[in-house]
Amino acid sequence: xxxxxxxxxxxxxxxxxxxxxxxxxxxxxxxxxxxxxxxxxxxxxxxxxxxxxxxxxxxxxxxxxxxxxxxxxxxxxxxxxxxxxxxxxxxxxxxxxxxxxxxxxxxxxxxxxxxxxxxxxxxxxxxxxxxxxxxxxxxxxxxxxxxxxxxxxxxxxxxxxxxxxxxxxxxxxxxxxxxxxx
Amino acid sequence: xxxxxxxxxxxxxxxxxxxxxxxxxxxxxxxxxxxxxxxxxxxxxxxxxxxxxxxxxxxxxxxxxxxxxxxxxxxxxxxxxxxxxxxxxxxxxxxxxxxxxxxxxxxxxxxxxxxxxxxxxxxxxxxxxxxxxxxxxxxxxxxxxxxxxxxxxxxxxxxxxxxxxxxxxxxxxxxxxxxxxxxxxxxxxxxxxxxxxxxxxxxxxxxxxxxxxxxxxxxxxxxxxxxxxxxxxxxxxxxxxxxxxxxxxxxxxxxxxxxxxxxxxxxxxxxxxxxxxxxxxxxxxxxxxxxxxxxxxxxxxxxxxxxxxxxxxxxxxxxxxxxxxxxxxxxxxxxxxxxxxxxxxxxxxxxxxxxxxxxxxxxxxxxxxxxxxxxxxxxxxxxxxxxxxxxxxxxxxxxxxxxxxxxxxxxxxxxxxxxxxxxxxxxxxxxxxxxxxxxxxxxxxxxxxxxxxxxxxxxxxxxxxxxxxxxxxxxxxxxxxxxxxxxxxxxxxxxxxxxxxxxxxxxxxxxxxxxxxxxxxxxxxxxxxxxxxxx
Lengths: 182, 535
Known about the structure:
The complex is a heterodimer.
Chain A: H1 9-21, H2 24-27, H3 35-44, E1 52-53, E2 56-57, H4 67-70, H5 73-81, E3 89-90, E4 99-100, E5 104-109, E6 114-122, E7 126-130, E8 136-140, E9 144-149, H6 165-176
Antiparallel strand pairs in A: 1-2, 3-4, 5-6, 5-9, 6-7, 7-8
Helix pairs in contact in A: 3-6, 5-6
Chain B: H1 2-16, H2 18-22, H3 28-32, E1 53-54, E2 68-73, E3 87-89, E4 92-97, E5 101-106, E6 112-116, E7 137-139, E8 142-146, E9 151-156, E10 162-167, E11 182-184, E12 187-190, E13 202-207, E14 213-218, E15 248-250, E16 255-259, E17 281-286, E18 291-297, E19 313-319, E20 322-330, E21 335-340, E22 346-351, E23 358-361, E24 367-369, E25 380-382, E26 396-398, E27 403-410, E28 413-423, E29 426-434, E30 441-448, E31 454-460, E32 468-471, E33 475-479, E34 484-489, E35 495-500, E36 511-515, E37 518-525, E38 528-533
Parallel strand pairs in B: 1-32
Antiparallel strand pairs in B: 2-38, 3-4, 4-5, 5-6, 7-8, 8-9, 9-10, 11-12, 12-13, 13-14, 15-16, 16-17, 17-18, 19-20, 20-21, 21-22, 23-24, 25-28, 26-27, 27-30, 28-29, 30-31, 32-33, 33-34, 34-35, 36-37, 37-38
């Protein structure tokens, strides 16, 4: 595909907006549950320990203040059922490719110490992981004994077996109601 | 005030060391023997062989770990990433900045001496073309630069004043210029960009003194000419075959080797049945006559955007007791080739990255294509992707190790065939969807230059488009897409030094030079040039 150097910034923004409408993670599905019940479930299920909404909550998982504007209901439900599967991609990879967000790694240092965490930054020589306590660990890759991706894994618990279908719908409805900064 | 003081320094230098500035008057003899003045970096690729190999040894395996940034040069406003490969003559460095600016710097300090920017039209057509520039050529106190709106300009090397400017072709028809010219024996040789939007590619020669055009070699034949039968119908107006790399030259054979880009429209070859000569080829050109002596096509009937514009690396070796003259090229299509550069005959070819589109190469080097690898409306997964197993960024070759150092890209893409559009500027035949960056990686690979067999690799996170620079200090320098400069042991691939700059370095071509007894390494990172030296 040729580059689009003759496209103006406004035209480019319109193209980006259109492409975003094609992304099923942002648009697919409608919330059918009760957001009030969902909010109660959110608080009683331990979610605030890891997630932050409007400045309240933990910082281990993604910030959720505007998650309803960023994700579709189908995607959110899938996240709750299989948190480590089909992780979202961000479009700042080289030459149009995209990096996987929230990808987990297992780093083993030369002395045998193991750190498991979500990748927050990486280049060819370094990587920074965030562990389950929200602590950052920066590593010089050539100094590690091993470094492995853990696709499919997540710190977030799986709610498929602990919440009913109706409860999942309520929780999704609450998350979908979070569309703007409060 | 700084400019005034600097002018005083220049005047003082003129008075105290006139020979030094006179030495900027680079002669053809100096260019022919560029390897005998390793303190300079006289041309794109380092010498006419384009080996990007330096004989400097001050920075070497034992001390490279101490390398530190010495100066950084950056323009006053944000620009697309720098792609320029600097030229250094007697302590003066000539770089290009996007879009088509030339700047002369003190190579010890990074201080600007002069800068020249062309008056470009408000609207420039650069579809499928990076709005950048890959460097200058210097000859007889003149700096030659190609401009984005398809002009070739000669500048006074001391002042930046324009000596002449010629209109090479029509930018409003998609012709653009981004390459580094090649100067030889009184001629300035240039190529053209725009092959994705249906230009007709060519290689031009201009009189270095006057700017008069001496000849043009078309890369797409006219009806009735040899090769026109490989297009199905007349495509001589829009067939593509851009020439946006920089060629190499063998003065003994008096042959210029220039490579060509993809046929157009890309990703859909239905309206151009046949091999589509001379796209994706290397052309051997007699630079006196302006005639093609031979050609070798790497990817007949390309539908994957595998421009063959990698710089041809020339090397000599002895095979079965016989001395030979060879040309090495690691191609975007995933194969590494060695050709006899006297005759153009195929010597060997092997994959240097994962490739899924060909069973192999036949005895003449023609790929044996596999079924179901053409682009489809739904998308067909093929390795390598459209940016290729490697791209335009220079590889290097060390005569000491006899290894060819190349930035390898391990990445595939879904190639999608669309309806061919053949009316500029709406030109194209499809596109590609890259795989996740986490399903790909890059590597610096050392290949045996004659066999292509990999001796070692050093992995990088992303499948970067980077150059390599080999030195007599036993080193290979390279850069990562994420912003790391690094040095490897040329013999083993062991990491010896790394420095994180942070700006994307994927389009940088590294060089090294020496001034006042100090060796420097320089490369572009984002919008900056960063120079390194030992403390």
